[in-house]
Amino acid sequence: MEIHKHYKKSFIILSLLITGLFVTFQVNLLTNNLVASGEMGTQVGGIITSDTIWTAANSPYTITSLIQIPENVNLTIEPGVTVTAQSGIGTMFLINGVIQAHGNATNKIIFDGNGDTNFFKTNHPVSNGYLDLDYCIIRNGQSAFWFDNTGSFNLTNSELSNLSQESYLWYPSQDTYIEFNAFVNTTGIKIGTDDYSSNSSGFVFIKYNLFINNQGYVINNFASYGLSKTSVNNNSFAGTSGIILEVEKTSTTADMDATQNYWGTSDTSIIASMIYDKNNDSSCSSFINYSPILDAPDPEVPVAPAPTPSPSPTPIPTDTLTPAPSQTPVPTNTPGNTPVPTSDPDPSSSPNTTPTSTPTSSPSNSPIPNQTSNPTNAPSNPTVNPSSAFLRTDPSATPTIPEFPMSTALLILLVTGVMASLLMKRKLGH
Description:
Blueprint: H1 2-39, E1 42-47, E2 52-54, E3 61-69, E4 74-77, E5 82-85, E6 91-95, E7 98-102, E8 109-112, E9 118-122, E10 130-134, E11 136-141, E12 145-147, E13 152-156, E14 159-163, E15 167-170, E16 176-179, E17 182-193, E18 204-207, E19 210-212, E20 215-224, E21 230-233, E22 236-238, E23 245-247, E24 256-257, H2 268-272, E25 275-276, E26 392-393, H3 406-429
Parallel strand pairs: 1-3, 2-4, 2-26, 3-5, 3-6, 4-7, 5-8, 6-9, 7-10, 8-11, 9-12, 10-13, 11-14, 12-15, 13-16, 14-17, 15-17, 16-18, 17-19, 17-20, 18-21, 19-22, 20-23, 21-24, 23-25
Helix pairs in contact: 1-3
């Protein structure tokens, strides 16, 4: 009878220990799942293979390796999402498909480069890459966009700040609109346009923007073939220094219209000193026409944005949820040298990043296209949500089930073993 009681006690104690072990595992699992998909956000990287939505509920997103958007794949980013680059990844997005990131006035989408990252790049010579950004914040990185042949984008109602390398737009396949944005402490935009082959006219409209505290030139045009043109109108330049607008010297086609801008002064000699064109170097192909000027900022130009604090760094798990394949080539941060444009552009050649220097003014003889001030009038762009596509939420970012901590399991097993040993000794003693 006594031995039976000891067995009964042993059974009860072991049952309690096993129950405690199970409960501890479930609580730990629940806690880890909440951290993976909530507090710590979502870690992403690699190739997105089907139409995907990044949601505010799973934000912030930390990019741990290059995100690739293949042709015919759409990435849609919801208002309120924050996307941060892990330091050292080089570039956030390589676009052969479509990215649409539409925030709103009260719920913007944030892209943070963590100080050393490029943001958006197309894959030369694929021509289908398209980027559509509205009410976004792009900050703390290197180059905002590097479209190195026949891709296109729209950038509207956004804020760009603290960008240390120039952006590059090389022969866009559609008219491009950069409008109603604020550029603060950024480097310039280098632009080439053409209307050769099957491309459209390839106009670039840079209108109703605010440029503050530039690093070097603001806009450079290195080529404008055929009827294509870069139009820089109704912008405000504040706190700027040195050259603001320039056409590439030795280029045979570079051309730019810069009428109706606010320069912070009505003194044309000061304005002329901010321009570099044929007045400064006979090897330049054209004069930049800047007259008439605005006496006050255009009311459509945004006001200087208030500084937005950067989020605290997000801890990165040792195993990223969607690692990039090791064979995927990552584009270099700074492409090679740009050839001087010729009368017959070669879309297979690589762009150049070396800006020229110094200023000018005077009228241009090139045909000036009809201006479009509102991006809603832009020609139709690739559809982001085709009716035949099934949009999935974060297929590349589904959290995996975390492992139960080994130290906890060992501790519980140790306690179980000690208790069992004591019970066996007590039983044998009787």
